[in-house]
Amino acid sequence: MKVAICAQGTHLDAPMDLRFGRCPYFVVADPQTGEWEHVPNPGPGAAGGAGIQAAQLMIKLKVDAVITGRLGPNAMEVLKKAGIKVYEGTVGTVRQNLEAYRQNRLPLLTQPNAPGGHKP
Amino acid sequence: MIVAVASGKGGTGKTTVSTSLALVAAEKGKVCFLDCDVEEPNAHIILKPRLSGQEAVRVRVPVIEQERCTLCGRCADVCAFHALVVLPQEVMVFSPMCHGCGGCWHLCPAGAIHPGWREIGQMEEGECGKIRFVHGRLKVGEAMSPPLIRAVKQRAQAGALNIVDAPPGTSCPVVAAVEGADFCLLVTEPTPFGLHDLELAWEMVSQLGIPCGVVVNRSDGRDEPVEEFCRTRNLPLLMRLPLDRDVARGYARGIPPIAVHPAWKGHFRELLHAISERAGLKCAKS
Ligand code: SF4
Ligand code: SF4
To answer: CATH topology for B2-56+122-285?
Structure first.
């Protein structure tokens, strides 16, 4: 079981970043064992298609769920097709959001809640 | 000869200038009007052409043969525009992001990608009196306008005065429209914003190596900043059109300024003369 949380920094106590395509890091954690690692997001440097690129990274990392604040339509479509669940996190640290997820307190996102930011 | 009419931003009256220039030039010789403002073409409202032909403009886009695909992930790594995503069960194509570069179908190790087509818009053409008229209409939501702009420009006629109405701004579509012109008219307004956008447009056009000149539209007689700008850049200020309520009202109803004020024809004849002199310096052959 792997969950990726959008983060402003590289560890569990970093503030969560509400953006998906353009958050600087993902903290990828196993909620059962508590193991975690950080992965840089290729999105922020991209001229366009940041959300799509980040979604591709989630597939490569084989995560089961993503915790983010906002998600555009393209990234949502990719994650849905890949069978990755999306949860809406809130302002706080990565650890707090992971804990909320473990306790089933985060709402499941099934529709994009942000406009597509892509510019080819 | 190709003359492009551009402006750093929208709403400066660029199309007022381009259409009037076409109407005046058509009294003397062959004119071909190419409306390359494909996101919002509006020259037809003034020129009222009779359209007789239509053609879809298409660009290349990858088609994935999912049965042959091994899901190796190569194509998504190769695509600089993030138009491809390799899912655990299939490859997804985000066509609006694709630039048709061909990287993916050349590099797919399984030969599972072949080039297909995607329509980005329509080109329409016809006549208005003696003017040959062509314009492009980009599909709603489509972001890739340069191929459509180039298709419209390919209709330029040898031996005619080809007038290209460029999109506003200074990004790729404007470069696509202005590229290859013999002369570029920069239409501006005498406001601080107008001047800023004029500077950006001038930088772009001079980088393309195209000689240009400035037209001040809706002048209130206090154009010193524009004059100063032109003087320091050695840029000719070729024409000044005054702020005129009748012209604005006529334009809103699709009436060209030279029909509202026939006296303005003289200004445009002089403008035409100035352009041919300056463009001629660069391309004495054509
Ligand atoms: S490169 Fe070819 S084989 Fe590999 S994932 Fe893409 S389409 Fe499939
Ligand atoms: S043709 Fe080029 S831009 Fe389009 S999907 Fe393939 S690699 Fe990407």
So the answer is: Rossmann fold (3.40.50)
Q: Which residue of B has its CA nearest to A81?
A: B87
As annotated, the residues of chain B forming the CATH 3.30.70.20 domain(s) are 66-111
Residue type, B209: G
Kindly state the DSSP code that residue B206 receives in the 8-state scheme: H
> Shortest CB distance from B97 goes to which of A55, A83, A118?
A118
Give the Cα separation of B110 and B65 in Å (integer).
10
Centre of ligand 1 from the C-alpha of residue B26, in Å: 55
Identify the CATH number of the domain in which residue A8 sits.
3.30.420.130
The SS3 of residue A67 is strand
Considering its fold, how many domains does chain A have in total? 1
Residue-wise pLDDT for B33-89, tens only, equals: 999 999 999 999 999 999 999 999 999 999 999 999 999 999 999 999 999 999 999
A chain contacts of residue B87, beta-carbon cutoff 8 Å? 59, 78, 81-82
- CA dist A27 and A99 (Å) reads 13
| Among the listed residues A42, A45, A51, A8, the one whose alpha carbon sits nearest the alpha carbon of residue A27 | A8
Element (H, E) at A28: strand A25-29
Strand B161-165 to B50-64 pairing: unpaired
Local structure of residue A15 (DSSP, 8 states): B
Name the pLDDT band for B27 (thresholds 50, 70, 90). very high
**Do the Cβ atoms of A26 and A105 come closer than 8 Å?**
no
Spatial separation of the C-alpha atoms in residues B274 and B284, rounded to whole Å: 15
Number of Cβ within a 10 Å radius of residue B65: 13
pLDDT at B168: 87
Note the pTM of the prediction, 2 decimals.
Answer: 0.81
What SS3 class is residue B205? helix
CATH 3.30.70.20 fits B66-111, yes or no: yes
**Tokens standing for residue B77:** 């790594």
* DSSP assignments along B120-164, one per residue: EEEEEEEEETTEEEEEEEEPTT----HHHHHHHHTT--TTSEEEE
